[in-house]
Design a protein that fits this description.
The complex is a heterodimer. Helices cover 11% and strands 45% of the residues of chain A. Chain A is globular. Chain A starts with a helix and ends with a strand. Classes of the chains: A mainly beta, B mainly alpha.
């Protein structure tokens, strides 16, 4: 909190200084009328002062009126029309502005290695308007799903610092080492979460071969291109933003209290033939809370969680410059607290939270009339605080594991409890009494570029050179302490607690680790453009780059000896790529791209790969007759592309082509020879890149005077040569170890697109509706496996990461059913009410051979978003829904963070650890034997319910019922009310009087509601069974100030 | 105009500068991806084959990939004695894997870490690599090449030998290392037949032998390196195996047909094991053994008799000088000193090929009583005990009055001979037995000298009593170590020297060598091969270009057999015995059982004789370790699940191939009876 106060003060001082420095120019009221090409008055044209947010719309008669300072530029624009600009040197009145149609021809889109005119773009590129990114989200990657066609994301934790989504461009296309997209920020690889949305000038997603081919071996998984804002000529313009967010944890798992818990234990034990743990007397003590030491009733969730978390975020940027130099500077800080309830008095209280700090400075300098220099630097500092147990997952595990009845928060004697055979302790202790750990990371980039116009050699020729240095450092430290902890085993004759010390106090101990990463990058781009009579347009581009990076983590992970010395060799890439485009009359377009790129990780002579692609485009609406025949169709483009891209990040193994030699092997049969030589790993022959053959066809269309726009793409991506360790080479070949090879094959396919409809009723009222979707599936065509007994055990022909398990036939009805069914060989006695599995191979035994592919993995295949906004005068109301389609998951047996789940859902999965959900307390949801029902006063109608949610209870892990099977399958589809934004734009005299140009007050609510089938947990985390921080609902108040 | 020109000049200069800079970077970056410099200083794979020294380093490290052949007890690479009727233990089957094999726990999906298939083919590949690439070295003379080639050939053949005796027919992969990253079609190939396998290995060994060191050339410091004699001896062993009933169906013993009658190669329907008897195979086996004998270098190990210390020979045993009798030798020491480390192994001319064996040494500790720091559980079965003859060569069932076999009472008076003490408390069951019995068996009340230690006194000359309540009885196994007792009543002492001790001041052990092949085996194999001949065969040794005429000739057979007998102080073969080939076969089989106890011969012998089921189905017997005093000496079937639940199944004749391997290669057939 102290830090943020200082920061605010600094920002205010800075702003005051800037204001004072500014000289006031006289202000004129400019009035006029806007006409279209048919001389019809044009409503809803955007009239605004360039480089400000000051603006208005023309009314139904095309009229407008706006106040403009002298020296500014007035800009009037409308989608699909060329923009009209006027420098204001006097008070113009009754301006007549005729907008020319076809301004769309000049609209630009950022594509690989530069910009292209939108009309002539034939690759599959998604862009998002940067204003759509300006939401107070916790990180950029969280905003993309449902907003950008072609991106699928998944967020599995809501905890500050961990609430960062994974995302994939067009889904997962490979089972190789690298599935994630290449993210380039101003041309350099970077982390999407390291930039503030307000710094973004453009955001594009390159999806097909044509768009990504220039990135060669880096582009197979798609490319996300971000450019940041740069300085603009003119006086200093300042944008300041502040927001405060309250997050509220919804969807917390609902666990039973001590009394229900104890009764369910008794049932779980009784129905398996074990004597119940609690006597009737114990149950009474629990029910009436008579002994809070030995029979407590603790709601651990309440003890460790507050209802709300808090985040604050401040941003300020300045932009301006003169003819010679232009600048853009921004600062940002964010502070987010987790909703953990912590003691405020302990010196080792952990204060779980996540703070980030960013800066960016972009400087453009005109060196000569033909030479520009660009300098940019940015930094991103993150600081994550956690308790001394160093991983808040433990707290979540403990929250779901520690039962209400086991230990109290503290014994009435003041002693802190520990429990269990491993001296485990409660989440309360973890949070407050184990010390502090923190993870700090810093990323800093510096980049310098020179752009030289080479018109002197050839008109339209331009050379750009860029060098960059990227440095990341990580510093993790931990101060851990432990208090003395006790276990109360009972009471003595005097009724005093019998306390035994379980854990000795540990005084503070300190550990740390650090990691460094650095990268050099150099690139050169030569571009050429030529236009002949506005009919033929040529462009050519040659791009060369080289990079060199090194990470101490690689070295630390490599082991020792030769492997270490190899891991320390920098990773290098070098490549040359080119794009040639030709457009005829903006009607026919051809793009030819290629990348010729290399990596040091391959055998000399095989280091470079060649990746060509081509794309075609046709715009029939350029023909007069089309316009006449279909007047409502204002724009139509067909696109198609095909090509090959690569992925060189095929493995973390260095130089897999090398056979590593051990020079200190033992020898035999010989004297005088010590230090035998033997291979210690087998080099892979014929090692190659992972290749991606991508095909894409798409349509872009604008209808009804561009009110309705849509585009849709269909794609297929065939991966060849996915790098994997061979499995099928027989032993008699005599290889020391299986070599690696480019043997895997996978195919993915799908579609993405979006549609938008925009209409303005008058200058005060307008609306836009938008929707987008991404659908992607994949299928493994070859995954080399050790040979399998049954064809259905093969990975081939199935989705990558498919869930395999048993087909549940239901619950065993009775002993007769158990006896007459195939033997289930998991161990333990199978009883009626246990899960019955299908004998797939018909061998009369249920064992691992009966596992089959059950469903697709738990990441979405269909992701969609829709929403819109309504503008009324200065008010804008935006709504966004986000959803995903059928997404199977399992409550039991699915691997989550490397562990099979089940805990948190199945009652008593972990015996005396593990809370029980309230749904399990409803007898209708359990299979209960008739005799138990009768003996315990439960409604007999509920006995032996074949459709119960949970099989016959068991106290402890039930191996038969805990297999991954269709029994536990669920569908984690959801539709989320992702966002509601209410924006009030203030642009009145008062604002101007206090020195502001404009001000926006924004209220944003996100994750406000979810429709789903999971109910118990957030659907995005369904398979975590409540063992991770839920995705909170967030309410933000955001303030924008423009000076 | 001028200004423009100037501008142009300036700009041109600038552009030229940039272009210069660019080309400089590009020029420098041609080698940007060349990172070889970083590992130039490390040895590259290709550099191995450029010098003689590196090839040798590679060659001998390839040899180091073979298992210690003495690793037959625990952590064993082959089922070994514990999978036969000679050994038994209660120790965990995961360590004593022979027990797992005998109990039927081994399956193609769980080979208990005994799967040497891959490792042997790794060796074969390395040998092929050496042979393919050795000519890259420029510093080798023709002689160097011959040396390296000879041993590379031997290494490859020896690896195939390991595969053949364990798994049966092998896949012969040829001379070139196979490509390392191909599809299965490239690799797929069927197994050879048994005859193709043996013929190939023998031919390779015969090819290697002339290039290897002759036995007389072997340096003591190179002990463990096989000589040409080893190559010929392995041929003799393989040829005998090939001729034996399991692989060569004798009319009287058609084991090859009963065991392998339905086992055909799936690719072409050919029987893996020939279903037609061929007596010539016995002649070839005889020739191979005779060839080793004719080398004239090897002889049985003997230690000279010391009057007053060496026991007197019973009168029915020839007093002539060895090898015509046992008059001048000490039979106990002649046998015992070979194994316990007393005789310097490199100088022992009986050891055609032997190696220092840490496994043998370390596992000898398993036989030591718990009190002496051992684990007391490496047991020998009663069947073996009963197979040892009386000192005059008679069976225990048929003992003479001079050397009677008496099962009750103790000998009453300490007996000392050949440096061996028989304490007074020893049961009379163990009196008057042949010398190899005393050398090999730790029976109750035997004295454990541990003479290397100075103290404590109670660990020297320890009398280990295996009866319940005795000094090394079941109840002394120690808390939590319920397996540390001699459940049969006998442990193996063959590899234990009187000095050996594991605890006490100054405790040390003699270094042990494990005989891979001994001359005694060649002699007995020769006798066995001759014994199976009914006609005269002429066999030409093409390598030495020598012709052998082989028939069941009395002198040849008896002299070979008797040498082994005399060395042990046993009587020679009688004429009556010789006249019946069946009797001779029986005697030979029993002789091998005794002579090669725990030398990993019996596992293979009972199988090749087609007697695996017959010998294994007998119950494992021993003494009653739950009984005290005299009752201990009651011979009973071992009352333990590991003894009762032994699996008798014909499939155990051949070790299974890993299921994974069989599934990888479509043409690779599994051994009969195992899951494929």
């Amino acid at each position: 909190m102290y830090k943020s106060k200082y920061f605010l003060t600094a920002v205010l001082l800075f702003v005051t200084y800037i204001l004072a420095a500014q000289t006031q120019q006289p202000e004129y009221t400019i009035t006029g009328i806007v006409y279209d090409e048919f001389n019809e008055p044009m409503p809803s044209a955007t009239v605004y002062v360039k480089n400000t947010t000051q603006g208005t719309l023309s009314d139904m008669e095309g009229k407008f009126s706006i106040k403009v300072r002298r020296g500014s530029t007035l800009s009037i624009s409308f989608v699909g029309y060329e923009t009209y600009e006027l420098f204001i040197d006097k008070a113009y009145t009754d301006l007549v502005v005729s907008l020319k149609s076809g301004s769309q021809l000049e609209e630009l889109v950022v594509t690989g290695l530069g910009t292209q005119r939108k009309i002539s773009t034939v690759g599959a590129v998604s862009t998002i308007e940067t204003k759509d990114l300006q939401v107070p989200a916790t990180s950029m990657s969280n905003i993309l799903g449902g907003r950008v066609a072609g991106i699928i994301n998944m967020q599995t934790s809501g905890e500050p610092g961990k609430n960062i989504s994974e995302f994939w461009v067009r889904g997962i296309g490979t089972f190789g080492a690298n599935q994630s997209a290449l993210v380039l920020i101003d041309g350099l690889e970077g982390d999407l979460n390291s930039i503030d949305p307000a710094d973004v000038e453009s955001f594009s997603v390159l999806k097909d071969a044509s768009a990504t081919a220039v990135y060669g071996v880096r582009g197979a998984n798609g490319v996300v291109l971000v450019t940041t804002k740069r300085g603009k000529e003119g006086h200093l313009r300042i944008t300041a933003r502040a927001n405060a967010t309250i997050s509220r944890l919804t969807k917390m798992p609902d666990y039973v209290g001590a009394y229900d818990y104890a009764r369910l234990i008794n049932e779980a034990q009784s129905v398996r033939g074990t004597a119940p743990m609690y006597s009737q007397r114990d149950l009474d003590v629990i029910q009436y809370g008579l002994d809070p030491d030995l029979f407590p009733d603790v709601n651990w969730q309440k003890e460790i969680m507050r209802d709300f978390g808090f985040q604050q975020n401040y941003y300020v940027s300045g932009q301006g410059g003169g003819e010679i130099a232009r600048y853009f500077v921004s600062l940002n800080m964010s502070n987010e607290n987790a909703a953990y309830k912590m003691d405020e008095d302990s010196p080792y209280r952990s204060g779980v939270g996540y703070n980030t700090y960013r800066y960016r400075a972009n400087l453009d300098i005109k060196l000569t009339s033909t030479t520009n220099m660009y300098f940019g630097t940015d930094g991103y500092l993150t600081l994550r605080k956690q308790p001394g147990v160093a991983n808040t997952d433990y707290i979540w595990n403990a929250q779901s594991q520690l039962t209400p009845v086991l230990i109290p928060l503290e014994y009435s004697t003041g002693h802190i409890p520990a429990y269990g055979p491993n001296d485990a302790y409660s989440p309360y202790v973890m949070l407050n009494h184990t010390g502090i750990s923190s993870n700090q990371s810093y990323t800093g980039k510096v980049t310098l570029a020179l752009v030289q116009d080479l018109d002197i050699l050839l008109k339209g020729l331009k050379l750009r050179m860029q060098a960059a240095y990227d440095n990341k450092s990580y510093f993790d430290e931990r101060r851990s302490v432990l208090p003395e902890m006790y276990w109360a085993s009972g009471r003595n004759v005097n009724g005093e607690l019998l306390l035994a010390k379980r854990v000795n106090a540990e005084t503070a101990s300190y550990t740390y680790s650090q990691r460094q990463y650095r990268k050099y990058h150099f690139e050169t781009t030569l571009t050429y453009e030529k236009r002949i009579k506005d009919i033929h347009r040529f462009s050519g581009l040659v791009y060369y780059y080289m990079s060199d990076s090194k990470d101490t983590k690689d070295i630390a992970d490599s082991g020792y000896g030769v492997n270490m010395s190899m891991a320390a060799i920098p990773k290098r890439y070098q490549g040359l790529s080119s794009r040639l485009t030709y457009g005829y009359n903006d009607t026919y377009m051809v793009d030819i791209n290629f990348g010729y790129t290399g990596s040091e990780n391959f055998q000399p002579g095989r280091q470079f790969g060649f990746f060509p692609s081509a794309a075609l485009g046709w715009i029939p609406t350029q023909y007069q007759w089309v316009n006449e025949t279909i007047p409502w169709l204002s724009f139509l483009k067909f696109r198609g592309s095909y090509g090959m891209v690569g992925s060189d990040r095929i493995t973390d193994r260095r130089f897999p082509y090398l056979t590593i030699v051990n020079e200190n092997a033992s020898t035999a049969w010989a004297s005088g020879i010590s230090g035998g030589i033997t291979e210690s790993s087998v080099g892979a022959d014929n090692l190659m890149w992972e290749k991606s053959l991508k095909a894409d066809v798409g349509v872009d269309a604008h209808l009804f005077r561009d009110k309705l726009t849509f585009n849709i793409d269909f794609f297929e991506d065939k991966r060849l040569g996915i790098f994997q360790q061979r499995q099928s080479i027989p032993g008699y070949v005599g290889l020391l170890a299986m070599p690696y090879g480019n043997v895997g094959k996978m195919r993915s396919y799908g579609s993405d697109g979006n549609v938008a409809f925009s209409h303005d009723f008058n200058r005060d009222l307008g609306f836009t509706i938008r929707a987008n979707f991404t659908y992607s599936r994949n299928e493994i065509e070859n995954w080399e496996q050790a040979p399998q007994k049954y064809p259905y055990q093969s990975y081939n022909g199935y989705t990558n990461g498919v869930h395999r398990g048993y087909i549940a036939l239901g619950l065993f009805k009775d002993e007769q059913d158990v006896a007459s069914s195939p033997e289930q060989t998991f161990g333990g006695k199978v009883l009626p009410g246990d899960i019955k599995y299908k004998d797939i191979n018909g061998d009369g035994v249920i064992n691992t051979d009966d596992r089959v592919a059950l469903s697709d993995p738990t990441y979405p295949r269909l992701m969609y978003g829709f929403g819109g906004e309504v503008r009324y005068k200065s008010l804008t109301l935006g709504v966004l829904f986000k959803g995903r389609g059928h997404t199977p998951y399992y409550h039991v047996g699915q691997s989550v963070n490397g562990v099979n789940n089940g805990m948190g859902y199945v009652p008593f999965h972990g015996g005396d650890v593990g809370n029980v959900l309230t749904v399990a307390a409803d007898p209708a949801n359990r299979w209960i034997p008739m005799d138990y029902v009768l003996a315990n006063g439960i409604d007999p109608a509920l006995a032996e319910n074949p459709n119960a949610r949970f099989p016959r209870l068991d106290y402890g892990y039930n191996v038969n019922n805990s297999q991954l099977s269709t029994w536990w399958q669920g569908d984690a589809w959801y539709l989320r009310l992702q966002e509601i934004t209410l924006n009030y734009h203030i642009n009145n005299d008062f604002i101007k009087k206090i020195g502001l140009t404009s001000m926006d007050v924004q209220f944003v609510g996100s994750n406000l509601w979810v429709w789903d089938n999971v109910k118990l947990f957030d659907p995005e985390q369904a398979h975590h069974n409540g063992r991770s921080y839920p995705i909170p609902a967030r309410y933000s108040l955001q303030l924008y100030l423009n000076f | 105009m001028k200004k423009t020109m100037n501008n142009l000049k300036n700009i041109s200069g600038y552009v030229v500068g940039i272009l210069f800079f660019l080309s400089a970077i590009t020029f420098n970056s041609c080698d940007f991806l060349k990172v070889d410099d970083y590992f130039n200083e490390t040895l590259k794979y290709d550099s191995i084959f450029t010098s003689k020294r590196n090839i040798e380093r590679y060659l001998w490290s390839t040899a180091a990939q073979f298992p210690d052949e003495g690793g037959i007890f625990g952590n064993n690479y082959t089922p070994g004695p514990m999978a036969t009727d000679e050994g038994f233990t209660l120790y965990s089957e995961t360590e004593f894997r022979g027990m797992a094999y005998a109990l039927g726990n081994v399956s193609p999906t769980n080979l208990y870490n005994m799967n040497t298939w891959n490792n042997m083919y790794i060796i074969i590949r390395k040998a092929n690599t050496i042979m393919t690439r050795m000519n890259e070295a420029t510093d080798m003379t023709a002689l160097d090449r011959r040396d390296i080639l000879g041993y590379a050939l031997f290494i490859r053949a020896y690896a195939y030998y390991h595969l053949a005796i364990k798994y049966g027919p092998v896949i012969i992969v040829g001379d070139k290392p196979l490509e390392n990253n191909e599809e299965i079609d490239y690799y797929d190939r069927p197994r050879a037949t048994w005859d193709e396998t043996v013929d190939y290995i023998c031919a390779e060994l015969e090819k290697a032998a002339p290039m290897m060191n002759r036995p007389e050339e072997m340096l003591v410091s190179n002990f463990g390196r096989p000589s040409s004699g080893a190559a010929y001896a392995l041929v003799a062993r393989l040829r005998l195996m090939q001729a034996s009933p399991l692989y060569n169906p004798h009319p009287n013993n058609p084991a090859a047909i009963t065991t392998f009658g339905n086992w055909k190669r799936s690719t072409d329907g050919v029987h893996y094991i020939s279903q037609k008897y061929d007596e010539k195979k016995w002649a070839v086996a005889a020739m191979a053994a005779k060839r080793v004998i004719d080398m004239g270098y090897y002889s049985l190990h003997t230690v000279e008799r010391v009057d007053g210390d060496s026991p007197n020979l019973p009168s029915n045993i020839s007093n002539a000088e060895f090898p015509n009798g046992a008059g001048n030798i000490d039979p106990f020491r002649s046998y015992a000193d070979m194994f316990n480390g007393e005789t310097v192994a490199p100088r022992n001319r009986e050891f055609i090929w032997a190696q220092w064996s840490n496994q043998t040494l370390n596992y000898s500790r398993r036989a030591f009583p718990v009190h002496l720091g051992g684990w007391n559980g490496l047991c020998v079965t009663q069947k073996i005990i009963d197979a040892y003859r009386m000192v005059d060569g008679r069976d225990i069932q048929n003992s003479s009055s001079q050397y009677p076999y008496i099962t009750r009472g103790t000998i009453g008076k300490e007996k000392v001979f050949s440096g061996y003490d028989l304490p007074a408390t020893v049961s009379r069951m163990y009196d008057n037995r042949e010398m190899r019995f005393y050398a090999s068996i730790g029976f109750s009340n035997r004295k454990w000298k541990c003479s290397s230690i100075s103290e404590p006194a109670d660990k020297k000359n320890f009398i280990a009593d295996y009866s319940y309540g005795g000094s090394a009885g079941k109840d002394k196994a120690g808390y939590g170590n319920t397996t540390d007792y001699a459940i049969t009543g006998y442990v193996l002492t063959k590899f234990i020297h009187p000095e050996d001790a594991w605890s006490g001041t100054g405790a040390r052990r003699q270094q042990k060598s494990f005989p891979i092949i001994r001359y005694a085996e060649i002699l007995l194999s020769y006798a066995e091969a001759l014994n199976n001949l009914t006609e005269t065969h002429t066999i030409i040794d093409t390598i030495a270009n020598k012709t052998y005429t082989l028939q069941r000739e009395k002198n040849e057979l008896v002299s070979a057999f008797n040498q082994v007998r005399y060395r042990a102080g046993m009587p020679g073969l009688t004429d009556a015995e010789f006249d019946s080939p069946e009797t001779v076969q029986g005697l030979l089989e029993r002789e091998r059982m005794i002579e090669f106890l725990f030398e990993n011969r019996r596992y293979f012998d009972v199988r090749r004789w087609g007697k695996y089921e017959e010998s294994e189905k007998e119950l494992i017997r021993g003494l009653d370790t739950d009984a005290k005093g005299n009752s201990f000496y009651t011979i009973i079937p071992i009352n333990h699940a590991k003894a009762r639940n032994r699996l008798i199944d014909r499939k155990l004749v051949l070790f299974p191939l890993a299921l994974d391997e069989v599934r990888k290669a479509p043409s690779l057939d599994q051994n009969p009876g195992w899951q494929d």
